[in-house]
Amino acid sequence: MKPRLQTSLGQQLVLTPQLRQALHLLQLSSLELEQEIAIAVESNPLLDWAEGDGAEAPEGMPEPPAPAEAAPAEEPAAEADGPGLDDGWEPPDNWGATGGGGGGEDDGLDPMDRLTRTESLHDHLSWQLHLTRLSPQDLRIGAAIVDAIDDDGYLREPLAGIAEALLPDVRVGEDEIATVLHQIQRFDPPGVGARDLRECLALQLHALPADTPCRAQALRVVEEALERLPKLGVDGLAAELGLSADAAAGAMQLVRSLDPRPGSQLGGMSADTYVTPDCVIWRHNGMWRAALAGSNTRLTIHRGYEGMIQHASSSDASYLRGRLQEARWLLKHLEARGDTLLKVVRCLIRQQSGFLEFGEQALRPLTLREVAAEVGLHESTVSRAISRKYAMTPRGTLALRSFFASGIGTEGGGEASSTAIQSMIRRLIDEENPRKPLSDAKLADTLKASGVPVARRTVAKYREAMNIPASHERVRMA
């Protein structure tokens, strides 16, 4: 074969340093953004704090809670479309440190204070991930998985969604993500990273010593008869699985000893955990409004150093021009970040005004795709824009993810969100006769009569998600 030259046309996405910075800023939480800006001001002489030169708060806007230390905040000043891709991930310097999700500065923390701090589930998993021998790419995948695990320890995000969130720097299939997930499922606490209750209990049983009495029988119970377990009883379980009565009783007892919510052992939000709202939602003159939650401290260009450029030597002037360009890019990307966040929040207000007005029962089904289509952004951009972001509302400080909910079709042709159905179930249970509590089947029939057809198993799943015991455990004679 003779060597030859060929030309071809093609399109390829190239991430410039400026675009990478914009993507990086978009996904940061408010506390992480404060730390990022502080580092930028320390390293770039062309950046400076500007005190008290911001615009006044919109009319009727409540005053957001001030953090312990004032930190810089940005406001959208120009119309800009947020970037649609996520940037690369690198393990932070304080990867193994405990503390809140904001990436606080722990270098000066007293060792005894560190011991008494509350460790969240995500901190605990991140620390174990750091100690695992994985490639840089697998570490990125693992970080995305850990971020998607909820406070109960379950991975409710589909693997395809995690693969999409890793784009464009990490392009992997679901098989590769599943491989890393299997590693995380071996972490402490046992059962973490499961995608459903059956997998959670099976992981805990596999973590037990092989000589644990009734372990093999308990695995069969979990894999073959878990949903029918309350109805079968010991005798029915023994007959269905071909076990002796003693083995069936031992297996059932072992299954009952497992923790269906392993993540709750390290509760993600303790009583002394605080979050800083990224935006404020309030009602003024009958209209819902939103604005970014900022302090009176803002970032600006240091005019003194900017004026030195014309009088400095060639080498100094070149250095200052480079730093000036970096400062301008940072200010522009902060504006784009704020504009993107505000655009998404205003869309959420339009879609979920009933939720803000009447509570969870009025929360309508809403997906990332619907919001992305309305605001003209990519789904992954919306996902990163709301990740670890909070809004101060008349109903308290809420995570932006709480405005989203899956839907179930109703008999009237519409949809009811899963959160609204849970609220209806809770209300029915609160109003039930304590001497004769409503069973899951009765709750399902009541909801069906209200126009919301849900199966008994769905009611049981929602009831368990709200940590409400079964009907036979709610019986009270008083």
What does this structure look like?
With about 475 residues, the chain is an alpha+beta fold. Among the domains are: about 195-265; about 405-475, Homeodomain-like (Arc Repressor Mutant, subunit A, Orthogonal Bundle), CATH 1.10.10. It contains 19 helices and eight strands. Strand 5 and strand 6 (about 395-400) form a beta hairpin. The longest helix has about 40 residues, at about 315-350.
Describe how the helices and strands are arranged.
Blueprint: H1 17-27, H2 30-43, E1 47-51, H3 111-116, H4 121-130, H5 136-148, H6 159-165, H7 174-184, H8 197-207, H9 215-225, H10 229-241, H11 245-256, E2 279-284, E3 287-292, E4 297-301, H12 303-308, H13 314-351, H14 353-358, H15 368-375, H16 379-386, E5 390-393, E6 396-399, E7 407-409, E8 415-417, H17 418-430, H18 440-449, H19 456-465
Parallel strand pairs: 2-5
Antiparallel strand pairs: 1-4, 2-3, 5-6, 7-8
Helix pairs in contact: 1-13, 4-5, 5-7, 8-9, 9-11, 10-11, 13-15, 15-16, 18-19
Task: Briefly summarize what is shown.
The protein has 478 residues and is of the alpha+beta class.
